[in-house]
Design brief:
The structure holds two protein chains of two kinds.
Chain A (H helix, E strand, L loop, with lengths): L2 H25 L13 E12 L4 H11 L7 E4 L18 E10 L3 E9 L8 E10 L3 E11 L2 E2 L3 E2 H22 L2 H10 L10 E10 L12 H10 L2 E6 L5 E5 L2 E5 L7 H39 L7 H42 L3 H10 L1 H88 L13 H33 L3 E10 L2 H9 L3 E9 L2 E10 L16 E8 L4 E9 L7 H14 L5
Parallel strand pairs in A: 9-12
Antiparallel strand pairs in A: 1-6, 1-8, 1-9, 2-3, 3-4, 4-5, 5-6, 6-7, 10-11, 11-12, 13-17, 14-15, 15-16, 16-17
Helix pairs in contact in A: 3-5, 6-7, 6-9, 7-9, 9-10
Chain B lengths: L9 H13 L13 E2 H13 L8 E7 L2 E7 L1 H12 L3 E7 L5 E7 L1 H7 L4 H11 L7 E6 L2 E6 L5 E3 L10 E5 L14
Antiparallel strand pairs in B: 1-5, 2-3, 4-5, 6-7, 7-8
The chains are: A alpha+beta, B alpha+beta.
Amino acid sequence: MNTEQTQIQNQNKQIQQNSHVKEVKEQGGTNIRDELNEVIVLKDVRFLIGEYIPFGCNHIVAFNNKLGSYMRVKSALLTQVVDEDPGGTQFSIPPVMTAVQVKDFDPNDYVNFDAQIHYPEEPGIVQIENFGVHVSSSGKVLYGLELDSVAGRSKDHVSVDHLSRVISDIVQDSSQMMDTLLTDYQRKLLDLTYIGKASNRDKYTFIISSGIVPDLKAREYLDGEDKENELRQVLESFQNVHDLSDGSKILIGTHGTILVSKEYKKYELIASEYAFLMSLDVFIQNFFSRLFVANDAIKEIKRLIEESEKEPTAVERAQMLLSQTTSDAVLMGEILGYLKESTNVLMKEWQHCLKEMNKEQKELASLLGIETRVLAAQEQVKDMEHIVTGLLRSLDGLANMNETINQRQMRRFQETLEENARNMESMTKASERTGAGVAVMEVILSGTLAFELIDLFSGGKVYPFEYGTDVVSTLAWSGLTVGLWAIGSVALFVTMKWLGDRAEPALQIKTKINRKYNPEKLKEYLEKREVTTQDLDVVGETSRKRVMWKYNDGIIWEELPKWGKRKVIITLTYDEATNYLLSAIIDVERPGEFTTKEAEEAFFAELKEENVFI
Amino acid sequence: MSYGVKMLTKAQNRLLYLISLYSKPSKSENENVIWIREMPLRVFMHEGIERKIFDWDYAPASVMLSDGRKFVNISQEGEDDLNDLRELGLINALKLSTSRYYFITAYCITEKGIEELNKIPLEDRQAVDSLVRCQCGGLLKTQEKDGSIKIKCGNCNYEKESNILDVEDVSYVSKPYMPKQPNISKHRGV
């Protein structure tokens, strides 16, 4: 394809895109069920949504790599799908992707990029969602967008009712987009802070508008009625409102701020810093709550250790919780490190910005109380450092307590073991005595049997010989009788030994598997076998199931593909909670039929053929 | 339009009656106070808006639920009326921390509020009854479970899912916007 063709194609694509944009601008629909009572309308709206994500120098390098900042073509499509088969040729994924275009970056410090999100929406809803993103190594993340049209209306007629819905959409979609770009470690830190709900994390919004209808004095919006209620949809509770000396208005809320100014450009820097600062505050609040979760976990560990004598699973649960909480506390310490660095950079940044500000900018900065807030954030971080240090010390103490309990239990276990060994020894001795007694009984029994037989064949005569009572006849008769007794005894011993040997399998193979299985396929595999026994052990998070089945049990004419006519008993152990095949025992009943390798290979080949393994 | 005693609006009358059905102040030290949590109240308020019982509108707001933070359709006019009822001393608000590490507010009608109930027109009472009473006569309750909020009847098997978590979308067109950021780097220094 030559350059001219490519240009024509790009132009066509642009024309199609523009016509699509035009259509959305003119006919953009909503699925709002309520009849909106629009009281306030904003003109020429742009907004910044801030959030804090723990970032360090290495993370920003990795982030730049993922975005392809170093590449010649600085744009790419991103998806949340993880390639499970990187060695394969093709794959198909849903068309839910984010297009990114890197604008500006410093490999170790920051990156600015544009993102276009293509997430599925309900029928009738078309969102052409383009926004700018700034990410810096101090953890500052800003999403900025300028509205061209909302719900089929032009950018000069954006109702606050509609704006609240656009903001909620961007807040959610930006989290989804960032998840594709963050490292696992960062996602882990976010999940820890937001207690596993990082995808629904909250953010702070700074709205900038060049005009507002009705145009009133800032205080007049606090009417306690319609206007205030309408603005609270994007600001939440009002903190402060002011008219600036240049005619601009600032409406400050707990969840958002609106700046109405015709000369908004001069306030952009302050807006960015404030949006980030407030989102940092949101993060700190969540992190502070998370400390209480850890504190409660410590209380629970302590309770479990104290109850270890009463609750049979207490020690195990305490150990699991202790290990989890310790790992969390270590990560919290790391988050605090990032926060500390971030607040220090923020303070430096702010000091630097202040030097370059004019009177009007300083007025807004003072109203927003930025410097005080940065100082407060630094203090909060310091305060939380003490709490995390305390948590780690408590966990150390609990680990020592747990160790003591473990040692105590181990001592008891050892004593019980010794006691059991002694009992076993006595039982073995008793069993040996009983065995000797049984052997004597067997000899006597075989004698009785021999005599009974002689009696039967001699017709009950004491001396079956005609010539009576001479010594030779008596000795011959006695010898014959004792001989028969001896033969009978030997035959009985041999029979008993043969039966004993038959009761024990000739070959027993114990094999560790430890491989992930497909639950559906395993179910199908087991359904084809006559499972005779099943056991289930549920301990904590594990659910171990043991199943046993036999091949060729009583059906001697059947010849199985892998096992032939051999009699085999298989015991398979697997964990239903984690979907892992753990171990198998293969018992071969008759000696010499199978080697260990053959039996193991036959069993694994069977599992592979039925696609039990993943 | 304001009408009724104490200049309560129609929506405020209805809201007061709604709270009275789910709360009860104690008459002695041995009797417990019954409160309604803010989220169930918001669910019924939202349901009331959808069924035109309350003349408010709503917008999505990020709030904490028992299973984490979510966007919920909340009526700021409704919240404002709740505050008005508090200021008039007709309801009390209780702030309490939950076992899941966040704070909630609960509401209870006061003795003064109970006196006001007699003055609420029958039409308003009937409208609220149609909202919170099941066909079997039982009082409906809400339950947050598995990421959704259900409205249920304790007496029969009636159950429906609330739309309060169903945040509506609008079509929009946006373009990237990013102001120039301070040229400060922790690596380059100030």
